Amino acid sequence: MTNHGISSERAEALLAAAREAASRAYVPYSQFPVGAAVELEGGSIVTGCNVENASYPLTVCAERVAVATAVAAGHRHIRAVAVTAPKVASVTPCGGCRQVLSEFRSSDGSLWVILEGKTGPEIVSIDELLPRSFGPAQLDSASG
Ligand code: THU
Question: How far apart, in Å, are the Cα atoms of 36 and each of 3, 22, 42, 132, 133?
Fold first, then answer.
């Protein structure tokens, strides 16, 4: 899974969707908007923004909002996710979101993460961000 096959135009389009989602972030406590755009198998795009709460730990990250929205719409396989935080040059998904994204990999096991790079989109694999991950296969092997 070293070849992502994502054109720079598509990566830019996903980042643009993530930036637009970030404009809807509810961040009265951190003032740190984040936007995410997941591309599903089949090509549709679902976005999310972070949603904070006065009870701080109940905050939901942008990536998790996007994943939950996609799953609720009937999707299970994410090809790529673009993540952006307009207040910083580049942001990477937090550890919890890496785990949640990993659950919904593409059918071939890949999932590509598109970040804001210095000169354009930077594309990294979920395995680079979350090596030796825990996942459903381990639960399956325990029950067999
Ligand atoms: N945040 C995200 O939405 N995604 C991440 O991957 C990192 C953190 C949000 C959570 C909180 O609303 C704000 O950024 C500051 O932590």
Answer: 22, 7, 18, 24, 21
Whether pTM exceeds 0.70 = yes
The residues lining ligand 1, judged by C-beta closer than 6 Å to any ligand atom, are 27, 30, 32, 34, 50, 52, 59, 61-63, 93-94, 97
The residue type found at 66 is A
125, two tokens: 């694999």
Q: Which helix (H) or strand (E) holds 102?
A: helix 95-103
If you measure from the C-alpha of residue 49 to the centroid of ligand 1, how many angstroms do you get, rounded to a whole number?
9
| Better pLDDT: 66 or 144 | 66
User: Ligand 1 centre from 143 Cα, in Å?
Assistant: 35
